[in-house]
Design brief:
Its main location: membrane. By secondary structure, this protein is mostly helical. It has one domain. Helices cover 72% and strands 0% of the residues. The longest helix has 30 residues. The protein starts with a helix and ends in an 8-residue tail after the last helix.
Amino acid sequence: MNLNHTIFLSFKIRSEYQEAYDFEIYDVPKSLVYFSKYRSVLYGAIGVYLAFILLGQRWMRNRSPYGLNTALVFWNAGLAIFSIVSTIRGLPETIYLLSKPNGIYSIICEHDAHNYATAFWGLMFALSKFVELGDTVFIVLRKQRLIFLHWYHHITVLLLSWFGYEFADTFAHLYVVNTFVHSFMYTYYALRALKIKIPRRVAMLMTILQISQMVLYCFVNLYSLFEIGQGRPCNREASFLYGILLIIASYFVLFVNFFVRAYLRPSKTKTQ
């Protein structure tokens, strides 16, 4: 059990800004221990994912692509609904913390206020990153172009989400930023799967939202480093913090590069 696990045991999980439903109340410290104990599940899933990409693309090489449109509609609609609900249930804590006099510091560095609803949907958020690996299954079976950004993003987000939950990192307060973006993103994908024509500028907006998310997350981690450098307590694992910053900075570079190549440079082929 690491330091943040011990801190979590002493929390009074608050409910004045949001009441949790019965199914949202669970043994939070025990779940943190399980994440630490069963890391092999994380690494095994990543191994299977990479093997599927390699073997799946080889297997599909001389086969016709599968349609899977109906399945894709339900898949994206399901993830959109999950993202919307997660955002709605996690947002009250974010608003509560930001409304405090030292709101930015509270939401990034402190564990003094937490809610079972937010904790539960934070857990669901971490586990949903396993489910989202299924996005790649559709790409491979439909023989669409699988770019580096896609599979790199899926693997590293899964890693960050798992360890963020395991370490009870305060950064997890802001999972609602990701679910907010995904609410729009998966809704957009579901509409596309339904063959609804959507203006190109909407696709551009989805990428801009992703880039904006990376800018915000970079700020959060740089702010954490600043507070630690000033000697103020910040309940974040320093080694994890540097890892997050490095990965998110790489996201920023990759998403900006994708945006430039897909929308700003003229191309003879349609970007998928």
